[in-house]
Amino acid sequence: MTTKPFEFEKALHELEEITAWFESSQVDLDQGLTKFERGMELASQLKDHLQLVENKVEKIRQRFSEPKPSLEQSARTNPVAVSHNEQLPSGDDEPGPEATDDQAGLF
Question: Which of 77, 12, 63 is nearest to 39 (CA)?
Answer without folding.
Answer: 12
